[in-house]
Amino acid sequence: MVESPDLPLAPYRLENGIKCFELVAEPVLQEVLPEIYMQGYGYNGSIPGPTIVVETGDWVRIRVVNRLPEATSVHWHGLDVPNTMDGVPYIEPSPLIEPGYGMDYTFQIINPPGTHMYHSHYHTIRQEMLGLGGLFIILGKQGQGQGQRHNQRDIAYMLQEFHLSGLPKGELRPGTYTIDPLSDGFNFFTMNGRCFPNTSPVQVRLGDRVRIRLAVLGMQGHPMHLHGVQMLETAYDGNEVPPTRQLLRNTVFIAPGETRDVQFDAWNPGHWPFHCHIPHHTSNNFTLPIGGMFTTIQVAR
User: Fold this and answer.
1) Which residues form the Plastocyanin-like domain (predicted)?
2) What pLDDT, in 10s, does the model give residues 259-297?
């Protein structure tokens, strides 16, 4: 079972063999740190939106309802779908979703198991940077991902960055702040919509084999570093890396628009940091305590 810490999995219902999901694009108030909120755009009440999990071969219908004050669309990043379902209005024959309306994206999952994303592809510079995105994960029919040995834990993270306006640099004050989508002076860096110490730790058992799925939606790349064990890089952009080309790493770089899968054996007990290795990205608004794109993986005996 895929887990996305601090984010729900998108529920679905079966109708005539089709998995039916619903995404509501709407203004969202997201708590990145205790009593510090950002105002942006999200799906189903969160930034990023809920994690969609399907299987290769599934037929899906994803109803997107637009409760934003502007038109929008959804692009299924990395998925091989019909041109009318790809979600880039005016460039493709894919409709624009006006405020107060909805659209059904219907297609079959023909990609192999892997890690992908979904996000707005209309007024991208604004909507994507206000938070409109989420994880889209394809499993094999037996519930497993790419052809790796069985993983006891399967953890997924969306990595994002935001500029919260009105908060003086070097300070953390409780309050609600707007996201400036046109700024490249980012001051908050999130894993599944939260900053450390508001990120939930991942607890695994000694001896577990763990997959971590990483996706970057935004402007900056992130070299993610795990303490205590080495990570085997097993997939790029939802495509399995042949075993003879898999690299053993302790830091994996994910560029904007990319996904990476890594796995490791939890042989070394302890509380191990997992974080972006760019120093500014592990700070909350440039304050000194550790923050930002940082969490822990706790290996218990």
Assistant:
1) 39-141, 188-287
2) 999 999 999 999 999 999 999 999 999 999 999 999 999
Give phi and psi for 282, each to the nearest 5. Answer: -115, 40
Angstrom CA distances, 138 to 22, 57, 74, 133, stand at: 17, 10, 17, 16
- 184 — alpha (psi -120 to 50), left (phi > 0) or beta? alpha
State the amino acid at position 170 in one-letter form: G
Strands 202-205, 239-240: pairing kind: unpaired
pTM: 0.96
Copy the structure tokens of residue 85. Answer: 């379902």
13-15 and 18-33: which strand pairing?
antiparallel
Q: For the chain, which residues make up each domain, given as ranges?
A: 2-139, 153-163+181-300
Q: Beta-carbon neighbour count of residue 123 at 10 Å? A: 16
**8 Å CB contact between 193 and 47:** yes
Q: 153-163+181-300 belongs to which CATH class? A: mainly beta
Q: Any residues with CB less than 8 A from the CB of 199 and at least 6 apart, and which?
A: 5, 6, 191, 192, 294, 295
3-class SS at 85? helix
Measured in degrees and rounded to the nearest 5, phi and psi for residue 231 equal: -110, 140
CA torsion sign, 44 to 46 to 48 to 53?
negative
Q: Where are the alpha helices (DSSP H) in 71-142?
A: 124-127
Alpha carbons 102 and 63: distance in angstroms, whole number: 7
Question: How many residues does the structure list for the chain?
Answer: 301
